[in-house]
Amino acid sequence: MSGDLEAAAGLLDLVVEGARALGNPFSLATSLNLQATLTELLGEEAQTAALLGEALDLGLEGRLSWPLGYTLPALAALALRVSDPAGAAWLFGAAADVSAADAVAHTFPVSRALSDRGLDATRQALDEATFTREWELGRVAGDAEVRARAAAVLSRARA
User: Fold this and answer.
1) pLDDT, tens digit, for every residue of 108-118?
2) Using an 8 Å Cβ cutoff, are 150 and 77 in contact?
3) Is 128 exposed, middle or buried (0-12, 13-18, 19+ CB in 10 A)?
4) Domain boundaries, the chain
5) Are 97 and 139 in contact (CB under 8 A)?
6) What percent of the chain clears pLDDT 70, i.e. is strictly above it?
7) How would residue 100 be classed by pLDDT, with cut points 50, 70 and 90?
């Protein structure tokens, strides 16, 4: 089954459906993040945005640091893909804050690879001063600021 994205899509649909039925926000946010990884690989930006938006809401509402540790870097990479490198640096900074504060370990190889690739591309897209400024602003952002910055990225991705 490895590498079979079509089969993975079918399974992930069932996983998300099961997580919704379970009613556990952590399970649902985690499942949405997994499905967003797949839609990113498939180049389905609008679908990726919808999934990450829902995962972000669940993560912030429930203070679910582990799922947020995956949602925020995925949103940052999405920001870069919709031509918002400053937003990407900001969201990577917010992700770093969550990961550092809660010792989130990035153990999913595909998620880690996509995040690393997005971070490298963001660094290349911005001068060092701009990258550092945006990163630091993201690291100190509160939930309302994270929601607002994510909403701008999600809106661009859905357009």
Assistant:
1) 555 667 777 88
2) no
3) exposed
4) 5-158
5) yes
6) 89
7) low
